[in-house]
From TrEMBL, chains A, B:
Name of the protein described by the UniProt record: PTS-dependent dihydroxyacetone kinase, dihydroxyacetone-binding subunit DhaK
InterPro entries membership: DhaK_dom, Dihydroxyacetone_Kinase
Domain (DhaK): residue spans on this chain: 7-329
GO MF terms held by the record: ATP binding; glycerone kinase activity
Signal peptide segment: none
Keywords attached to this entry: ATP-binding, Kinase, Nucleotide-binding, Transferase
One GO BP annotation of this record: glycerol catabolic process
Annotated EC: 2.7.-.-
The species this protein was found in: Variovorax paradoxus
Lineage, uppermost ranks: Bacteria, Pseudomonadati, Pseudomonadota, Betaproteobacteria, Burkholderiales
Gene Ontology cellular-component annotations: cytosol
Domain of life where this protein originates: Bacteria
Amino acid sequence: MKKILNDPHAYVDEMLDGLCLAHPELQRRGEGGRVIVRRGGAVPGKVGIVTGGGSGHLPVFLGYVGEGLLDSCAVGNVFAGPRMDDCIDAMRAADGGAGVLQLYGNYGGDRMNFDMAAEMLALEGMQVASVRVADDVASAPAAQREKRRGVAGLVLVYKAAGAKAAAGATLDEVAALARKAGDACRSIGVALSPCVVPESGKASFAIGDQEVEFGMGIHGEPGIWRGPLKPADALADEMLEHVLPELALAQGDRVALLVNSLGATPAEELYILYRRVAEVLAGRGVTIVRPLVGRYATSMEMAGASLSVMKLDTELEALLAAPADCPFWSVR
Amino acid sequence: MKKILNDPHAYVDEMLDGLCLAHPELQRRGEGGRVIVRRGGAVPGKVGIVTGGGSGHLPVFLGYVGEGLLDSCAVGNVFAGPRMDDCIDAMRAADGGAGVLQLYGNYGGDRMNFDMAAEMLALEGMQVASVRVADDVASAPAAQREKRRGVAGLVLVYKAAGAKAAAGATLDEVAALARKAGDACRSIGVALSPCVVPESGKASFAIGDQEVEFGMGIHGEPGIWRGPLKPADALADEMLEHVLPELALAQGDRVALLVNSLGATPAEELYILYRRVAEVLAGRGVTIVRPLVGRYATSMEMAGASLSVMKLDTELEALLAAPADCPFWSVR
């Protein structure tokens, strides 16, 4: 295992310590310090948005706690869901009296613990809504969208829902908007090499020296095919072939677009991918608004990239452009 | 070679195409399009700042062209200096009539071409000054500082000099400030794994599965020692032992600090390093101002990290805090 760490079992807690030292606008809370909140606490009268998930995906999940984005995050071990108690603490920390939206990626462990936390807090009288983002088209067919996993598209949904909540919308309105944003978003990823999970010291999956896995999930979940690595343009074309059909884009449509590195893949190569994606969309008369190219949802040092496309209406476009600020992203 | 690209020889140009498509505030100029400028062009009456260097280091170098930062950048092939003609075009593009500062890292090829470009444009009547940043303490002893290479500390110097120029200082003042900022900055890096240079298809260096090279340069230049990877805290302590002495920090001093990934090393591990660095500096009564933790100067998918520390006076601290904006970094 070739990673910069001390005790592999302290990886997450030492990371959280460093994060909060570097960004004092974030604070650790909860038993064990596995809840990240904004220093100012919940905003009275604003719908709170809580997320959560396993570690090892920075900036996802906790990195999007900030102004115009999320209020709190329950933090699990690397690639493991947060504990139910941390989900509860995160929800309490996000509650400004106008209700709390649970907004997270569709993974089994996260879902179970967030569901139990929601039931318990509803009994105490908290208004709770829940939206799971399931943007990874490679993880299940369109007819079974509820089985799809959430990947980098989650970031765009955070942004839209965060702006809606910041604008003073009710819990029902923020939840409806988050659902709309998730429904408008599709993603797919390609993996070139694994990452090493600190606690096991083992690679998250094995792959040949010249191979790519097309459609692989961010924890190494099986994709659509595995074979020799193709040129960037061919990869981009095939990614678009999987992502675009369900969005039914027409000439004149506008989309938000995220070309995301899974970790090791450098920015240079993301721009080579973006070049082709932009060319294809321009050819169809589709306008890309505020493209994001960078590391927005990773698996530590995994090599590979993902593409997320969100079809915009006027409301989504305005919400994505609203001011927001967190340690990893700022929109002005 | 496992990289997302088309033709290895088109790596840089396709990257530049994608970059300018994603960030229309940047434009390609010059014969061959190897000069990156701000769309608005030179700012009349402002000192222009030009940089340049090899590709494969995003966001360095061209990524720091932007408001309150740099005016233009001459772009070389991967790990190769820019051509003299591109240095000349970049300088012309940066010239708003108040003179041009060449501000770049201390590498032989870059130096030669920038020197020749400066001579030619001085003959045409352009006011030119030149400051080379040489912050890598591992690359030569203190007595031979002029031989040291420039690494990630360059980013902090860009920021300070860019703010000085934006504030309306003269060429002499901006050059003096850039020199002061460079003199106040020291860096060191550790490398865990190489990157692959697209044109050769070969790794930039070889290193054992359990080894680290302490003090290695960003192109794989030899460091101080090579041996088994140490725990993060021990690495941080040893990096500080090399970086701090020349800065002669005393209790009450304030520093800017950058914990930088060379590419593949994930943000999680940068925060584990930052945790220890912050602890050590706090123990000495030194305050870290606006720490930067992330990917600011990379070697594509190389694994490793660097630490840069700049000792601040009131002027440097204010300049680092001044507003700035480029595709990869924004200060508000």
